[in-house]
Amino acid sequence: MSERFCYRCGISEREGGPLIEGLCQVCFRKENPVLLIEDEINTELCQNCGSYKVRGTWVDPRNYELEELIFEVADNALVENLLLDERVKEVKIVPKDELEEITELPVGTAYVSFEPVDWHIEYFPAIINYEVEVKARIHEMQKELHHEKKMLTVYVRQTVCPRCQKFLGGYFEAILQVRAEDRVLTKEEKDEISKLVEEKVDEIMKRDRMGFIQDTIEKEEGIDFYMGSTSAARKLAQMIRDKYGGSISEAYQLVGQDRMTSKEVYRTSVSVRIPKFKVGDIVEDKKGNIYRVEGVSGKGLSLKNLSTHENEHKDWKTVKRDEIDTVEHERLEAMATSSTPREVQFMDMKNYETFELEKPEFEIEEGEVYKLVKVKGRYYIEEKK
């Protein structure tokens, strides 16, 4: 059998083979470069929030320190623009020292490392020069791996992402309205709800970049949060209801027409109305039992029965069924002056009048001052002062 020769350099197969597609080992690697990435790559980061595109989608950065952020954006752009021979089916990014140790690879596999060797990031566009190195095997008859290096430049330019464009333009998609049933929110409730919303928005924006708060307006009856997305407003309303109980409703207002699709655009008002009850309220059920509200949550009311001083929990369905509602009452302080097996005598600390109560099941100490409530002419002991 006659000996074959490389058609490019003329070396014999015995010296430079085995031949691959008529080429010796060296010429095959030269004629079939693996590293095809461009010499220059352009990318952008948002000058307001630091976000950048990953596979076409704007994402928040892992690090907000400017120098590290620039390298994070540039590294991502390099990886996204990495172009290799189509015969490479599997790519792994590794550190340079790991790449140096690789001598064997399966067919269709490439290992890539890159590192910045020079940069100018004092002003924009930031310029970072990288050395990219690859080892690969694209043919089963290769004796030696492809081993290629290339210098390239990444330009990081500033822009304003779509979210920040909308935020800076005063955009909002929904209004989250927080109110209380048959009363105004207390200052403590407003402060607590505002803190809850601010904390939860940070969590929501990790999944919904438009979930920002455009504005917060405190009104006498409650608070309005102007939200960048309806989805975020709904999630926050659910979180508030989970904590305080209450109901959620929605209303829609036509605000215009989408220029691209000609569809009508609506703005959503998401209203969460928390229950009328608050800690310290005196309430009565349909059987005439008197309670003090100890806690209000999404699961119901925590109550203290003022006749037995036992704690009870009633879910919202039970609250409705038992017709629990606030009741008119008068609060006072009185001293326990004496007791019999059946009664306790108290003296009102304001007018010094005395009155008797049926002796409760719990212990009353003579000489101590107690907080009482008067409901429909009957006295109930709340607690020791």
List keywords for this structure.
alpha+beta, 5-stranded mixed sheet, 8 helices, 20% helix
Walk me through this protein's architecture.
The chain has helices spanning 13-16, 25-31, 66-80, 96-100, 162-168, 187-204, 230-244, 316-321; strands at residues 40-46, 52-54, 57-59, 90-93, 109-120, 126-137, 146-159, 174-180, 213-218, 223-227, 247-257, 264-274, 282-284, 290-297, 300-305, 311-315, 325-326, 330-339, 343-348, 354-358, 369-375, 378-384. A hairpin with a 4-residue loop joins strand 9 (213-218) and strand 10. It folds into five domains: 1-31, no CATH class; 33-162, no CATH class; 170-272, no CATH class; 277-319; 328-385, Beta Barrel (OB fold (Dihydrolipoamide Acetyltransferase, E2P)). The longest helix is centred in the middle third of the chain and has 18 residues, at 187-204. The protein is built from eight helices and 22 strands. The strands form five sheets. The chain has a five-stranded mixed sheet with strand order 1-7-6-5-4, covered by helices on one side. The model has no long low-confidence stretch (mean pLDDT 92). Helices cover 20% and strands 40% of the residues. The protein is of the alpha+beta class. It is elongated and about 125 Å long. The protein starts with 12 loop residues before the first helix and ends with a strand.
Task: Briefly say what this structure is.
With 385 residues, the chain is of the alpha+beta class. It is built from 8 helices and 22 strands.
| Number of strand elements | 22
Give unreliable regions as ranges: none
How much is the radius of gyration in Å? 37 Å
Global shape: elongated
SSE succession: HHEEEHEHEEEHEHEEHEEEEEEHEEEEEE
Q: Which percent range describes the beta-strand content?
A: 35-45%
Q: Strand order across the biggest sheet? A: 1-7-6-5-4
Query: What is the CA-CA span between the terminal residues?
Result: 112 Å
How many domains make up the coordinates? Answer: 5
Mean pLDDT: 92
Report the structural category. alpha+beta
Helical proportion, percent range:
10-25%
